[in-house]
Amino acid sequence: AGRPVAKDELKAIVDTFFRLVQQRDKSAIDMFDPTGVLIGSAAGEVCDGRDAIVAHLDTIYGLPVRLGAEWHTTMARSTDAPIAWFWAEGDLLLTSDDGSVARRPYRLACVLVRDGKTWRIQLFSGSEPVVSH
What count of other Cβ atoms lies within 10 Å of the Cβ of residue 112? Predict the structure, then answer.
């Protein structure tokens, strides 16, 4: 059982994950459930399980920019069950070593599961939507 979770609580979990990624912190993997899946925008970016997610994060950490996110719109749902989902739309922030920041439209959908008192990401699906003209 449990209690319904507030949207702000789920947003804080996602924000913590992005902060760890921006800091290139290896502990970002601990935000995931052991059987978690990460799906990215590019073809082939389907990371099933801890080892695949770690390899993907290592690739991200090797980029010449640091990734972060800023959300404009968020939604979340949960029940008494230990599962919830979180959706957000905003910008992926790409910060260069010189401090300049490029922004790209970004959408995120996450399914989170509660492990005791701790929420972990079961499914992370991030995408860079095509901007329509």
Answer: 28
